[in-house]
Backbone:
């Protein structure tokens, strides 16, 4: 494996520094050697000297050696300072790159962890079985629902009456349209569906009939078909009402926000984010929700 550029530069500077040190040691040794050859009078081989002469000789020797070595040592110090600066700068750059890579990896891990938790939570909510009417939490959905129930008043189709009987609703006991709607609502309230089931059925209904179709006419059209269960007709109606209010549903909005966040990210690990989402979140739901978005492409998961 080849070294990266900062590491390679640091190694080169280190070897260059060692070479400079050896070079200057050799120069100093050479100067000392030449000094003993060219100025033998200042060496300790002279005999019959008084202590004062010896002291003066050593003073002269140290003065000459200092004059010879000081420029060399000064230049050597400057070179070492320069090498130290270059090495420190290279190592600082290498350290900065390592920290930057560590921060990037930590950010990637954090983003994936957050995405995983959010995707898992939203997926559980979209697949959780709930009372259908609890999902109609806004006024327009409830108005649409009660308009549908009001439209069933006085409808005595045998299959419809049989359905009422199966859910324990006494059709004959209702004296007014208001009583009829309220009592039927209470009986139907116990029915549970997941938001996934409503979305899957609702997108099919919206393709075939649009969203704002007349629900009572729809029931009258299909109730005569023996192969089509009455409870499925009601399920179609619930799904259509749910889809009319789809984009204000808090879990749908959160899912769409998460998808937009992934789509608009400029991160180099964008594909990893998409793959993480695909592993956790129900793709059948996600693909159908994307159909209702203008800023997320249909091929988002491809």
Residues:
């Amino acid at each position: 494996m080849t070294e990266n550029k900062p590491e390679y530069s640091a190694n080169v500077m280190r070897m260059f520094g060692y070479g400079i040190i050896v070079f200057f040691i050799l120069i100093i040794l050479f100067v000392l050697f030449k000094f003993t050859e060219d100025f033998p009078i200042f060496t300790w081989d002279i005999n019959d000297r008084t202590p004062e002469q010896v002291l003066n000789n050593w003073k002269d020797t140290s003065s000459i050696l200092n004059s010879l070595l000081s420029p060399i040592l000064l230049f050597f110090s400057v070179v070492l300072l320069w090498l130290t600066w270059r090495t420190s700068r290279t190592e600082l750059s290498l350290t900065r790159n390592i920290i930057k890579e560590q921060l990037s990896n930590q950010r990637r891990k954090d983003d994936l962890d957050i995405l995983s938790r959010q995707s898992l939570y939203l997926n559980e909510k979209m697949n959780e079985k709930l009372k259908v009417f609890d999902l109609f939490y806004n006024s327009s959905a409830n108005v649409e629902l009660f308009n549908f129930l009001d439209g069933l008043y006085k409808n005595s189709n045998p299959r419809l009456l049989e359905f009422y009987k199966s859910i324990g609703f006494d059709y004959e006991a209702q004296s007014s349209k208001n009583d009829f709607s309220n009592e039927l609502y209470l009986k139907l309230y116990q029915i549970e569906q997941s938001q996934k089931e409503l979305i899957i059925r609702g997108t099919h209904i919206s393709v075939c009939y649009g969203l704002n179709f007349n629900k009572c006419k729809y029931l009258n059209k299909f109730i005569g078909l023996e192969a089509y269960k009455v409870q499925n007709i009601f399920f179609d109606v619930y799904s259509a009402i749910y889809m009319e209010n789809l984009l204000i549903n808090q879990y749908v909005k959160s899912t769409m926000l998460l998808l937009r966040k992934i789509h608009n990210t400029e991160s180099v690990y964008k594909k990893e984010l998409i793959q993480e989402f695909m592993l956790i979140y129900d793709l059948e739901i996600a693909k159908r929700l994307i159909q209702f978005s203008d800023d997320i492409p249909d091929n988002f998961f491809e």
Remarks:
- The chain has a mean pLDDT of 85.
- The chain is about 70% helix and 0% strand.
- The first strand starts at residue 129 and ends at 131.
- The beta strands are 129-131, 192-194.
